[in-house]
Amino acid sequence: MHWYILGPGAIGTLWASLLLQAGHRVTLLQRQPDAKHQRIEIISSRGTSGIEPATEALSSEGPDIEHLLVTTKAQQTEAALAQIIPRLTPDAQVVLLQNGMGQHEAAARLLPSQLLWAATTTAGAWRESPTRLQLVSLGSTRIGPWGTNQMLQSDGWGALEIDLESTPDIKSVLWRKLAINCAINPLTALHHCRNSELLTDPARHERLRQVCHEVETVARALEIRLFDTPLAEQAEAVAQSTGNNLSSMLQDIRLHRPTEIEHITGFLCRQAEHLGLSVPVNQALLEQVRNLNVAKEFPPDE
């Protein structure tokens, strides 16, 4: 089976290694590939290994694509997919493995005949350089159909050596990830802090709890079950267990890259507006991170 990966950042590169290890062919779709094959080192607690996936220019021309994994930033999904739609076969399997929500509906509109899946992962990895990937944890991954009752073919991802679970209710799983991201990512970006520092500062901790209360109000109105315990407790546990981590949103701010705020807090605020609900804390965070996105100066790295 041949998988094309659109968005070969940290998660895309990690999945390239997992698919190659499982015996599949992999091609990374890049705007400007440096070479047809590029060796990438995967560094983890187990040691260092290397992969050499094929690379190819992101283009509407080329071989047909039957299996596509999308790991771009959420806000890049539509534009990136539009460039390769002519290459997708009518029954192609397309998996969106991303943070945030809202892009799935856009992808479904662009791909009316293809089989679309959504996935979310707790894997931790970051690109030290274009040829070095630091793997912190494989975490767990959940995948499910988006608008179809069919499930991903087991000969595709079934052989991956990860904690992988298929679910028919992927939207609830995505909402749980969104809820945690709403609680942690914007606050770490604004305060330029590590995850655990949201808990050690009383004002930040209180704001996290306020965010969680508003998220639960919206989820309840949509009849979405988040967790068996309060969201604030879940968010606190994640912030503590990933205490030394820098959120992806903070990393984007530090690197002067657009963040995924519109598909995280922005998505939540749009859902609240549609329901006629007020979420002032989340709305304020949305505006503040939007301002950070366009700011020219950022706090220095700690």
UniProtKB/TrEMBL annotation:
InterPro entries: 6-PGluconate_DH-like_C_sf, 6PGD_dom2, ApbA, Ketopantoate_reductase, KPA_reductase, KPR_N, NAD(P)-bd_dom_sf. Pfam families: ApbA, ApbA_C. Pathway: Cofactor biosynthesis; (R)-pantothenate biosynthesis; (R)-pantoate from 3-methyl-2-oxobutanoate: step 2/2. Coiled coil: none annotated. Its EC number is 1.1.1.169. The keyword Transmembrane helix does not apply. Residues 3-146 form the Ketopantoate reductase N-terminal domain. It is an enzyme of class 1 (oxidoreductase). It catalyses: (R)-pantoate + NADP(+) = 2-dehydropantoate + NADPH + H(+). The keyword Nucleotide-binding does not apply. Residues 169-292 form the Ketopantoate reductase C-terminal domain. Keywords: NADP, Oxidoreductase, Pantothenate biosynthesis. Catalyzes the NADPH-dependent reduction of ketopantoate into pantoic acid. Belongs to the ketopantoate reductase family. This is 2-dehydropantoate 2-reductase. It comes from Marinobacterium alkalitolerans.
